[in-house]
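Retry 2 of 3 after timeout on previous attempt. Resubmitting C-alpha cells to design endpoint.
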C-alpha cells in the first residue's frame, strides 16, 4: 500500500501531536512544577519527610532503634534535598492558607531564611560525608539539626 503525500503528512502530524505531551512530561512533572501548583502543600510534604528522617536518626542515637549506616546517610540525603527545594517554596501570596506554619518573618527576612537553608544543606552534606559509624552520625546529626532549631525558632508559627 502506498501512502499519498497528504496521508503521510496527516500521519506525521498525528505522531507529532501524540509525542508532544510525552516530550513535555518531564517539564510538567518535576517537583518544582508541582510546587508551583501548591507550594504550601509541597513544603509541608518536604518537612514531613525531614521530620521522619530526623525521628529515625534520633531513635538510632538514643538506642531506640539499631544503628543502620544506610538509614543514617539517608537522613542527610533527605536534609540536602530539603535544603535545595524549600527556599523556592515561599513565593509571595503563600503567607497564609493550607494550615501553614510559616511565620511572616520569612518574607520580611528572606535572605536570613534562605541562608539558614544553605547552612542546613552544608551541614547535611558534611554529615553525609563524615558518617561512617554511630559516633560520627551522632555528632553530625546534632550539628545539622542545629539549623532546624534555629529556623523553627525564628521562622515558624506553632499552631
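Retry 2 succeeded. Sequence:
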Amino acid at each position: 500500500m502506498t501512502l499519498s503525500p497528504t496521508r503521510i503528512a496527516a500521519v506525521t502530524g498525528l505522531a507529532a501531536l501524540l509525542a508532544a505531551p510525552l516530550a513535555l512530561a518531564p517539564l510538567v512533572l518535576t517537583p518544582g512544577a508541582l510546587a508551583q501548583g501548591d507550594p504550601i502543600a509541597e513544603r509541608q510534604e518536604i518537612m514531613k519527610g525531614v521530620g521522619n528522617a530526623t525521628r529515625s536518626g534520633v531513635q538510632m542515637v538514643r538506642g531506640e532503634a539499631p544503628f543502620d549506616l544506610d538509614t543514617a546517610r539517608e537522613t542527610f540525603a533527605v536534609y540536602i534535598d530539603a535544603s535545595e527545594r524549600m527556599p523556592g517554596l515561599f513565593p509571595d501570596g503563600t503567607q497564609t492558607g493550607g494550615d501553614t506554619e510559616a511565620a511572616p518573618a520569612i518574607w520580611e527576612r528572606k535572605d536570613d531564611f534562605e541562608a539558614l537553608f544553605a547552612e542546613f544543606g552544608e551541614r547535611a552534606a558534611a554529615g553525609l560525608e563524615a558518617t561512617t559509624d554511630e559516633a560520627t552520625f551522632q555528632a553530625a546529626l546534632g550539628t545539622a539539626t542545629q539549623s532546624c532549631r534555629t529556623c523553627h525558632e525564628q521562622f515558624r508559627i506553632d499552631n
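Attempt log closed. The first helix runs from residue 5 to 28.
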